[in-house]
Structures are given as C-alpha cells and as structure tokens.
Amino acid sequence: MKQLFCLCAALLVLMTACCKNEAPKDKSALEVIKARTSIRSFTGEKLTEQQIHTLLDAAMAAPTAVDVRPWRFIVITDDEIKAGLYQGEVHKKMVTTAGAVIVVCGETTRMVKPHDAPDDTEPVERPNKYWFEDCSAATENLLLAATALDLGAVWLSCYPSERIVDRIRAYLGIPADVTPLAIVPVGYPAETPAPKDKWNPDNIHYDRW
C-alpha cells in the first residue's frame, strides 16, 4: 500500500510538471488583437530564424492595393548595428535589448508599362500611391504575430519625419526610392503591461455622422 501511495504521488508530481511546461494554447484572432500592447523592455534573448520567418510571413499576408506588395524589410540582429539605430536617444534604448529589430520600408515607385501599350513598350516609373497604407497594414500584422508567438514588440515611428527618415536611410544604406516607415523591436518581454481598453462608443457613427 505504501509503495502504491508513493507511485501515485510521483505520478501526480510528474503530471503537474508536464502541465506547467506544456506549450501555450493557440489564441483566437480576437484574443491576439485585444492582448497586443507595446513592449519597451526586452530580456535580450535572440530570436530564432523560424520566429523571424513567421513574423515576416504574417507581415506579408497584409492587404495591398492592386497587389503591388511594396513592403521591404530589414532584419537587424547584430548588436552593434542595433545600438547605432538610436545612438544617444535614451528613450529608444529598447532596440539594444530586443531579440531583433525589423525595419519596415516601402518601395515608393515602380516600373510599369502604360495601360494597353504594345509589348515592346519600355516601362516607365510610376509612384506606388498606397505604399504607406500597405506597409502600415504589414506593420500591424507584424505586431499581432509577435503577440501570437508570446513575444513583445513596439512600433517606433520613422516616416514622415524627414530627419529620422534621412538618418535611417543613410545608416542602413536604403535606396532613394525606398522609404523606412517603422522600426519594430521584437523580443522576449521583460515587462508585462496590461493592454489598454480603447473601446469608446462615442467614436462610432452609423449611416451618417
């Protein structure tokens, strides 16, 4: 009887440990949206290639006008390059402890042939009118994917500040026809701020203003 009791106790301890170490359950899309919050402090642990791939795959699943897909991404994992992004700006120091920093950029022009032009017509440069909207949608997808993976992220502004855009473009060697929109540090959270409840029925109008 004593041996049976010890065996049961051991099994109970093992089951408890397994439950604590089980993978987190998948969250619904609405749960992820409501759980997302800005994380500005990270543990410094690096992200895996698979995690980065998953984040970028989600970003590129965003809606895009006329299926242009103007987004371009710079993934920064080198500690020295991360540190130089906001050198001297204390309130942006989270980039140094993030597992990776993803710079979301937009290709602002593209080469296209005029509508109904002959096949041998040379393409001409045309603006990507909706690059800002497309890349903003991609950035939001990136933030939500980080939440779904139990990571943290924060959207640091870049565009439309000419000062920041010019500095980041020069620092990272970004071409003139590509504009950095957002800088997104991603990593394992070192803080647990509660998401804000932003629901406000006063902001809603039905049928007319």
Report on the architecture of this protein.
It is built from 7 helices and 7 strands; from the N terminus they run αααβααβββαββαβ. It is α+β, with helices and mostly antiparallel strands and 209 residues long. The strands form 2 sheets. Strands 1, 2, 5, 6 and 7 form a 5-stranded antiparallel sheet that branches. A two-stranded antiparallel ribbon has the order 3-4. It is globular, with a radius of gyration of 23 Å. Residues 1-24 have low confidence and may be disordered.
Q: Which outline best applies?
A: globular
- The helix content is 25-40%
Please report which band the strand proportion falls in: under 5%, 5-15%, 15-25%, 25-35%, 35-45% or over 45%: 15-25%
Count of discrete alpha- or pi-helical segments spanning 4 or more residues: 7
Task: Provide a concise account of the structure shown.
With 209 residues, the protein is α+β, with helices and mostly antiparallel strands.
Search tags:
209 residues; alpha+beta; five-stranded antiparallel sheet; two-stranded antiparallel sheet; 7 helices
